[in-house]
Write a structure and sequence with these properties.
heterotrimer, A alpha/beta (318), B mainly alpha (325), C mainly alpha (314), A: 318 residues, alpha/beta, Rossmann fold, six-stranded parallel beta sheet, 11 helices, 44% helix, elongated, C: mainly alpha, ABC transporter involved in vitamin B12 uptake, BtuC, 13 helices, 77% helix, 1% strand
Amino acid sequence: MKHLCIGLAAGLTALFSPPAYAEETIAIFTKNLTNPYFQAVRVGTETAAKKFGVRVIQFVPTKPDSIPEQLSQVEDVIVKKPDAIVFIPVDYKALVPAVEKINAAKIPVTNITDRSAAGDFVAFVGADDYSIGLAVGRRLLNAMGGKGNVVILEGVKGSLTSNNRVRGFTDALKEFPNVKLLASQPGNFQRLNALQVMENLMQSFPQIDGVLAANDPMAVGAIEALEAANRKALVIGINGSREAVDLIKSGKLLASGDFNGFIQGCIGVEIAVRNLRKQPTPKEVMLKPIVVDKTNFAPYDTPVEQRACPTLEEVSTN
Amino acid sequence: MSVLTSKVVVRNQLAFSGDIMQTFYRVLAVALLCLALTALSDAFLTANNILNVLRQAALLFLMASGLTLVILTAGLDLSIGANVALSGCLAASVIKLTGLPLLGVATGIACGTVIGLANGVLVTALRIPSFIATYGMMWMLTGITYYYMAGETIHGFPPGFRQLGSGHLLGIPVPVYFMMLFLAIGALFSQRTIWGQQIYAIGANPIAARLSGVPVERRLVLVYAVSGAMAGLASLIILARINSAQGDIGEDLTLPAIAAVLVGGTSLFGGSGTVGGTLIGALLLTLVLNGMNLLQINSSWQPLATGIIILLAVWIDSRTRRISE
Amino acid sequence: MSTHALVQFKLARVPGVAFALITLCIVFALTSPGFATAINIANVLTQSTILLLLALPMTLIIMTEGLDLSIGAVLTFSSIVLAIVAISTGSAVLGLFAALAVGLCFGTLNGVLVARLDIPPFITTLGTLGIAQGLSLVVTDGQSVVGIPRSIETIYSGTVVGIPLPIILAALAYALTHALLYQTRFGTYVFALGGNREALRVAGISMRGMLIRVYAFGGLMAGFAALLMTARLNSAHPTAGIGMEFDAIAAIAVGGTSFERGNGWLFGTLLGVITVGVLRNGLNLLAVPSSAQVACVGALVIVALFIDGLRGEQ
């Protein structure tokens, strides 16, 4: 029994043992294994890695969005001294000590997606949640003809992404004084939650003309709820995901704000690599807010695995 | 039937009448809650809202019904949430690949049952306490699901399949029919069949049960398999409802299911409780959440409210149990 | 029980978790050059301290045939209170007292509900979990609490003669719990509450008082652990402690304490906590994909108990 266990353990570890770090190695930190956005980021980093001939290793907490776990992973990774790190903090404030540890270990680190509250970074690559919320909010309100009732489905309470996107929505609303905001409820960025919240909102409000959802899964949840109740409303989401594109094609979703994890992953790695190779890098790359709708969905229709990374120049001068 | 078994049956019948008292108090609680909500919100007593509540409660009940049998044997199944995730994701893949909803349904239920059987084996053959065995299983299932889904979402199922979750029959949501069906099956099975009696006996006194000829191991494997199968079924309804599958669809489902069973009056020590009680527990919990949504109470208060309800329900239970004994 | 039997009992217990721990250490040391370094070992031990602080009182609670599912949420809420008090008064010490007070309150509440109102611990602590978690969310509205006096941070990052402070604090907590369990009358009662309640009843000891104290101890330790957690994050977050109660239970089970017989082994808990920490650390160093890591944790728990079952006196 003992021998079997040891043998099994040795065999398993032989399977997982990495070769020595011959090439430049970059450690990538994302928030969880379940949100397709972070999967897109990871695919982006892998695609960029192949392009630049570096190696990336993925670190994801086993408990989704676990702050202590990401902290532990950072501490463990520092021991291995990767050449660089690309970092999405689970929480932009709580992970500051982790960034400070990375800085103390003199490992260059690039911040993407959620801007960390403090720390030294090579660069920040992100999309401006506020601008995206504003742009896609305006699109919906325009399509409504500037009048009617809307509801907002927020994300996770307290998350930076949710706060900024909702701010974008509400500022868009200010531009359309004849549109009435009925309610703003959190859907936790999740489909089933949003579906149930939407059902409840439909109980309280017999007339809803527009839904501003802070991400695509919630938009889909809202659409399901509407369909099940045989009601119609214009819905927008944010993510530019495959599912959203399918729904845009079929006309059920009006538009989706492009919050592109794939590109952020690509550019994050590119900047890290440039920094390692002593090439100049910008301090900040903010991806332009793009609203994906019936007119321009084609590039978003391909699966992330098959896309190619845009270059830094393409994205900066965009 | 030996003397010991007949003693168990008599005790069971006494427990049953005690259970009737418990059920009565709970139904009273549900009625009071409904009255309160009707007074507080115009939207509550509308047909749409009631149907919504029933639909949401049905899902919770389906998960909790199999779990009730497990808890009746003084065990616990912490893996049902992860079971839902894996079964659901596998079923979704099958539906997408073959375009045959029936095959997907079979896959989901089969997967859930196999997982349940594995739990049963861990508990009976390997003698691992159910708490730990199902906890370990939960992690392993989650790992397999994450690996399999690789962060992707499967979406877009045929409309026929979607009727399972979001469809209506004669104006009543389909999941509610499932709820009624399994309420009947569960109640009949546990109260009126020998196997059901044996399950109560195992929970009440495993040693006496074994001595009086109850095949304890086989019954235990059965209850875990049933719990798994119900999780598989629940996963299908979730798939049909949200029209997609993702690695995390099972999250946050396990504790509410356990709460529904406990609020429904089933004792963790085994041997007493009913499937009907679980239904009422599920209704109570769903009503509270529905009420909070209708009254636009900040969702941060929801865990708080649920916690208090659980404590209240069980406290009232222990008081009234003492009175009726 | 004769000393000989006691020694035999202990020896029969050792292999399950110690075996797992030693195997993992050897395997990781061989396959991962960074594992056996001083800094990594210090990391693993430091990372395990918060869990240990929760697992120690949980062992006692489990020995009384109980459970405390709320301990993670109480940790979270205590850390939030600590942060808020420390920020508004500028005093870390006041913050600590506040956290300990909050922990003690919740622990006592648990104890009273279990002992006086006779509500099963699983349900009681499930309820208080909801309450503590709910309070955390409501008070912070989902946001981190930042701006904590820097002195608190040093509690996690400071060292004394080269040993990280958290390890020293955890060692002290271990010593305290050990003394409590094995050298005081209170400890004897805890053992009795698990295996032999009749003896207590006969001796006229207030079982209720003992139970309340056991749960109160749990709450107090959660409050103390809140200090370490807040220091580690340099902030307080309403999701910080989520799920830690189950991690603690798993570590305790891996360590050999039985759920059904009230046999407790404190050292086993320590080994269990370290084993889980070593497993996670090793897997990270080997860059094992996260989904496999998730599965490994489950496998560890099942394998450890399986081995124990094989050896055991079931």
